[in-house]
Specification:
Blueprint lengths: L4 E6 L7 H17 L4 E3 L17 H20 L6 E12 L2 E12 L2 E7 L11 H4 L8 E4 L2 E7 L1 H4 L4 H4 L5 E6 L7 H16 L3 E5 L1 E4 L2 E4 L3 E3 L5 E4 L6 E6 L12 H19 L5 E4 L4 H14 L4 E5 L7 H14 L2 E4 L3 H10 L5 H22 L2 E2 L5 H6 L21 H17 L8 H5 L19 H13 L4 H6 L4 H13 L1 H5 L28
Parallel strand pairs: 1-2, 2-3, 7-8, 8-9, 15-16, 15-18, 16-17
Antiparallel strand pairs: 1-14, 3-4, 4-5, 6-7, 9-12, 10-11, 12-13
């Protein structure tokens, strides 16, 4: 029996960096050849990065991607890898009645040339996806021969929709799927269950290769695998790291255990932040350290993403800041090895108040905004990326001062993490450190003390919001599951709580539109997933 060896190369690419992406294809193809592979499969849109959005509509970009593809084919042959079959994703073109249109394409490279092309049939148009507007759909199936075996080739959404190219594939030894499937909590088993069904449908294993790394607000988790026709996973790759999974047709391959749910979310956020920092040319980040849980967890994530020495933590105490908050901020910085600074805001606030009479909430907001100005000044002066520690519960309810230290900057790691999960992730990170024999990065008091903005004496979050466990339950129902007031009351929620939360959410859309990007980790994140008008008079009856 013919048993070709297949390498699944889950690699991290950058949108638009076609030369670097092509260089990575060559490097990982070499690794695959050294591992004895006959076929190496790369993720969806590898040459271009993914998603390329409206870059696909630029003919100059398509020409650049094609030139990189052709150069890669030639270079592989020149480097002695001409016999290796290489399946790689890129942007293509096809003629339609409306003229030349871009396509989402899989390409077979061998013997120094492009031997075959396949255009993605099913173009998703939901959630974070906008492919139906951008690309032209393919029509023809593709089966390739490698080392005496037959492999069907499809791209991502082609296996999610019934019908189409999967039903056209017959008598193959395996179905190969190139994917750029973004991470979201709980999605892993959905992918594997789907692949198992498709494997039964085509009566052949499904080879699922997924992209890894952060790209803007999306995180790709890798987790490539091979699903057998009997419903077993024949081989699996780790999540959130570049990896070459080598599997021999018909055999049981390497396996990795699944991640704990909290660890999975944590590593997704780390991956998203690391990708954003690196791919946008930054080397360091800065954020305000208040001693509270949000900034503590954000700083720990930043240290894991880019190294503690590249994190600039700034304590910005006011006359209302407690001693324990300042102590906790300094303790955190020491634990993660951050560059720690103290910049009091009182002189700046006093200077403003001498010029303008302000009081109440206006005075509270001034303090918060001065902190934002300080962080941006440090960023401008020293070149750090400002990151915002605000969480999804605050973003949902608008419980943040616009342009303050909690919402200003270029990236918000906790944007899609509700407050209840913030505490869970902090506890997981500290427990993980203990398990590794390391010092927990987050001071225990930052986790256990009541959260407070400390903008007036004795202030705590629950002065303005319901308890976070209750708040997050209502927010999950209203925001993520689109349940209205009637449904929420039917579930037994207090009418006063429901009305207050819905009012806060509906009135805060304008703030959410101005919030930095942040990694999507749930099924419905603010931004691409949820698009509501800022100006709207609709209120839940």
């Amino acid at each position: 029996m013919v048993r070709p060896r297949i390498a699944l190369a889950q690699i991290d690419t950058c949108v638009g960096d076609v030369e670097a992406n092509a260089t990575a294809v060559r490097a990982w193809a070499r690794k695959a050849a050294d591992a004895g592979a006959d076929l190496v499969v790369f993720p969806e849109m590898t040459i271009t990065g993914y998603p390329i959005e409206d870059l696909a509509l630029r003919a100059s970009f398509r020409r650049g991607a094609e030139a990189a593809l052709q150069a890669t084919a030639k270079a592989l042959a020149d480097e002695g890898l001409g016999e290796l079959a290489v399946l790689v994703g890129t942007v293509g073109e096809r003629e339609t009645a409306a003229g030349t249109r871009p396509t989402n394409q899989a390409v077979l490279i061998r013997h120094g040339v492009v031997e075959a092309r396949y255009n993605k049939h099913h173009l998703p148009n939901y959630g974070v996806f906008d492919e139906f507007r951008i690309f032209a759909a393919g029509e023809d199936p593709l089966v390739i021969d490698v080392a005496g075996a037959r492999f069907g080739v499809v791209i991502c959404e082609d296996i999610w929709q019934d019908g189409g190219p999967v039903t056209q594939v017959r008598d193959v030894d395996a179905l190969v799927v190139l994917n750029g499937s973004p991470f979201e909590e709980g999605k892993g088993h959905v992918r594997t269950d789907l692949a198992k069904r498709r494997a039964q449908q085509v009566d052949a294993p499904v080879v699922y290769v997924n992209l890894v790394g952060g790209q803007d607000d999306l995180v790709f988790d890798g987790g490539s695998f091979v699903a057998g026709t009997d419903g077993t996973l024949l081989a699996t790759a780790p999540q959130f790291v570049e990896h070459l999974l080598v599997w021999e047709l018909g055999e049981q391959g390497p396996q990795v255990p699944p991640l704990d749910p909290d660890e999975e979310i944590y590593r997704a956020i780390v991956t998203g932040l690391a990708g954003y920092v690196r791919k946008n040319g930054f080397r360091s980040v800065t954020l305000g350290l208040s001693g509270g849980i949000d900034s503590a967890l954000t700083a720990a994530i930043a240290a894991d993403a880019i190294g503690g020495a590249n994190v600039v933590g700034v304590s910005m105490p006011s006359q209302h800041s407690s001693g324990h908050s300042k102590d906790d901020a300094e303790d955190l910085a020491k634990r993660i090895g951050a560059d720690y600074r103290v910049q009091a805001i009182k002189p700046m606030v006093d200077a403003f108040e001498q010029q303008m009479e302000i009081h109440g909430v206006t005075a509270e907001n001034l303090q918060a905004r001065v902190r934002g100005v300080i962080l941006m000044a440090i960023s401008n002066r020293e070149g750090h990326l400002v990151i915002a520690p605000g969480n999804k519960s605050e973003l949902a309810t608008g419980y943040a001062t616009i342009y303050d230290a909690g919402s200003i900057g270029g990236f918000a790691p906790l944007k899609d993490v509700d407050k209840s999960r913030v505490w869970a992730l902090a506890r997981w990170r500290n427990n993980h450190a203990v398990d590794q024999g390391e010092l927990p990065p987050i001071p225990e008091s930052s986790i256990t003390k009541p959260p407070s903005a400390e903008l007036r004496p004795g202030q705590v979050d629950q002065d303005s919001l319901p308890p976070y466990d209750l708040l997050d339950e209502v927010l999950d129902a209203y925001v993520e599951h689109a349940e209205g007031r009637t449904e929420l009351l039917a579930r037994g929620f207090d009418p006063a709580v429901v009305d207050r939360v819905l009012q806060l959410v509906d009135r805060a859309e304008w703030k959410r539109r101005q919030y930095p990007l942040g990694p999507k980790v749930t099924a419905l994140a603010f931004g691409r997933d949820r698009r509501l008008p800022v100006t709207s008079r609709w209120r839940e009856p």
